[in-house]
Amino acid sequence: MTQTYVDLHCHSTASDGTLPPAEVVRLAALRELTGLALTDHDTINGVAEAAAAARSAGIDFITGIEISAEYAPGTMHILGYGVNPESTVLRDLTATLLGGRDDRNPRIIARLQELNVAITMEEVEIEAKVPVATADGGEPKRKPIGRPHIAAILLRKGYVNSIKQAFDKYLAPGGLAYFDKERLSPHTALQMIHDSGGISVLAHPVQLKYTNDAQLETVLKDLVDHGLGGIEVIHSDHDQKLVEQYTGLAKRYDLVTTGGSDFHGTNKKDIDLGTARGRRIPRAFFDGLKEAIAERCTA
Ligand code: AMP
Ligand code: ZN
Ligand code: FE
Ligand code: FE
User: Fold this and answer.
1) Which partner for 64 in 24, 37, 257, 275 could form a disulfide, CB atoms 3.0-4.6 Å apart?
2) Which residues lie with the beta carbon below 6 Å from any ligand 1 atom?
3) Where in the sequence is the domain holding 110, given as residue range(s)?
4) Does residue 283 share a domain with residue 144?
5) Helices 88-114, 147-156: inter-axial angle, 10-degree rounding
6) pTM for this prediction
């Protein structure tokens, strides 16, 4: 059988990507991917559109979500795959995560205003394309507003020369307008993903900013003890050495290996869908993940 490729980590306009879900799928087809998982931050609102587009395009699809957990000194992101969109636990989870953003974003904007940056919360909502009403006139779907939306405005208005500079100067830890958001503990995050019918995967372990391998392994082991199902091995932040190291850890702890680009459209200009640091993600990763989800559902 010929080798084909997939992408298991990407973002759409349902969170802080710049392409709508169906457009992400269209790009996946253009890149000749045979499998895709959409992993927007804190929401699955994009997956119905993406799943429908994937069906038409003949691309296999897995539902996903990416959530941030409490962790220092780096960031801990946990991917949830195969979560059930109808699950009440999932609904609670996304509502909690959006609440954390509602508390944080106005503080960032207020601080920016104090710094004489001309920006309003309303502009940020427009930037994030927060819908005012649904097509059928129902309650508008809430949407996670993230720092990349704020960064895009700072860039457009000329306060910074790049998205990266917006983070370095204002939005990242140590920046002039940095505020953290309320996060779930890693154990609660895992539990809620599992209770939503999903498999949990530690995203881009390098971003934990561990100081040595033993420290990484301690963190990983604790997550595994709480039901972690997989580890993201291929990612745009992982060089060859890390890919090999994480593959070794996956074997040792009997974890599913996943991989993705972390595509965000023009919010991350140097990342293309289906490619992570020049590396493609083998179809076997999709099949292994799918199998793990199926096993979980019958467990
Ligand atoms: P938020 O959801 O508001 O916490 O923002 C998280 C998003 O910001 C993710 O897409 C990150 O990849 C992006 N991000 C975080 N730090 C940086 C940075 N230093 N430069 C560019 N993007 C970043
Ligand atoms: Zn993002
Ligand atoms: Fe992430
Ligand atoms: Fe991501």
Assistant:
1) 37
2) 16, 41, 146-148, 163-164, 167, 172, 264
3) 95-171
4) no
5) 30
6) 0.95
Question: What is the torsion angle, in degrees rounded to the nearest 10, for the CA atoms of residue 233, residue 237, residue 240 and residue 241?
Answer: -80
Per-residue pLDDT, averaged over 122-145, amounts to 79
- The whole-angstrom separation of Cα 172 and Cα 143 is 21
Regarding whether 53 and 196 lie in a shared domain, the answer is yes
pLDDT digits over 258-289, tens only? 999 999 999 898 999 999 999 999 999 999 99
Give the residue, out of 12, 15, 16, 170, with the most ligand 1 atoms within 8 A of its beta carbon, to mutate for a pocket test.
Answer: 16
End-to-end CA distance of the chain: 31
Same domain, 199 and 286: yes
Using an 8 Å Cβ cutoff, are 39 and 9 in contact?
yes
Does 276 lie in the same domain as 192?
yes
Beta strand segments in 160-226, E: 199-202
pLDDT tens across 199-209, in order?
999 999 999 99
Q: Which atom of ligand 1 is nearest to the CA of 168?
A: 19
Question: Are 229 and 276 within one domain?
Answer: yes
Question: From ligand 4's centre to the CA of 8, what distance in Å?
Answer: 10
**Which tokens sit at 47?**
């997956």
Residue 5, CA distances (Å) to 34, 65, 111, 175 in order: 6, 20, 44, 38
Task: Output the residue whose Cα is nearest ligand 1's atom 17.
Answer: 167
Query: Ligand 1 atom 11: the closest Cα is on which residue?
Result: 148
Q: Which residues surround ligand 4, an ion (CB under 5 A)?
A: 66, 262
Among 138, 171, 204, the domain-final residue is 171
Last residue of a domain, one of 114, 146, 171: 171
Are residues 84 and 201 part of one domain? Answer: yes
